[in-house]
Amino acid sequence: MDMKTFITGATGFIGASIVRELLKDGREVRALVRSGSNTANLDGLDVELWQGDLRDAHGLEQGLKGCDVLYHAAADYRLWTRTPEEMYRINVDGTAAILEAALRNGLSRVVYTSSVGTLGNPGDGTPGTEATPVTLDDMVGHYKKSKFLAERTAERFVEKGLPLVIVNPSTPVGPLDIKPTPTGKIIVDVLNRRMPAYLDTGLNIIAVEDCARGHILAEQKGRIGEKYILGNTNLTLRDIFGLLEEITGLAAPKVRLPYLPILLAAYVNEGISRITGKEPLIPLAGVQMAAKFMFFDSSKAVSELGLPQTAVKDALERAVEWFRAHKQ
């Protein structure tokens, strides 16, 4: 009997892209799906849907039976939340629960999806690497803090003997960005001409298909306990807008906002949100993150795993096509 590959976060942007790459390779896939979650990204795919929850340890153990590989790509990803403890429950405790289940089921390989947000970042435009020093105090906002702690949890399971590899995706772009991610939202805002100005920051962009393939390469070639940055090109936000202008023909925003007044406005917005419970117009964590250029060096994944490096402009083109087709 063929062993199955189990994946969490399969309905999301990166997860749904991993599922497609696994199916291309002829793999049998079982996907953890929360009840009531939007499964549009899996429509029409030959995937076994397993209803469950990262907070249910026993259920996870059942779900992993008959599987030999786990991709843990699920995370609660929001820049603002009224209930931070819920984010830690899913990102940290949920990671511990599924890795414990993987250990008990004797899986042959686990790939844990972290984020470049958990890595050290010089912030001055020098790209960060897997080895750049970093502490919990460097993490801005609950999402990054929770992902940082979850990555430490994954490392503890390696010490317990779990054959696990960590991947740290940078900023994927492309189709299936269903929510959309903050970067996808930038593209949508440009398409809808709702992006009058921008903050001077920088990102490392990778085609989501390359990012997904990088996960599979990490399973096949990654060294246990190692981290791999899945990224491609470092671009300033202005560079990204320039590419979007070439692709869409829509004028890129020309106004660069000064950082401090925006930061002040974000603090005020955050205060109002604490009272109203509504998401802030300007998420403070987003503004604080923008203070640093999120530039990273993915040469380790390229040399050790053979991570593909599709031109970023092609990835942005596919993202624009998908958002237009899905009327985001």
CATH architecture type of the domain at 4-177 and 206-231 and 295-310: 3-Layer(aba) Sandwich
CATH-derived topology of the domain at 4-177 and 206-231 and 295-310: Rossmann fold
Strand content bin: 15-25%
Strand order of the largest sheet: 3-2-1-4-5-6-10
Helix-strand makeup class: alpha/beta
What is the CATH homology-level superfamily of the domain at 4-177 and 206-231 and 295-310? NAD(P)-binding Rossmann-like Domain
SS summary, helix count: 11
Shape: globular
* First and last CA, distance: 42 Å
Q: Summarize the helix and strand pattern as letters.
A: EHEEHEHEHEEHEEHEEHEHHHH
CATH class of the domain at 4-177 and 206-231 and 295-310: Alpha Beta
Tell me the Rg in angstroms.
19 Å
Sequence stretches where pLDDT stays below 50 over 5 or more residues: none
Please outline the major beta sheet.
Answer: 7 strands, parallel
Number of strand elements: 12
Q: pLDDT average, as an integer?
A: 91
Binned, the helix content reads 40-55%
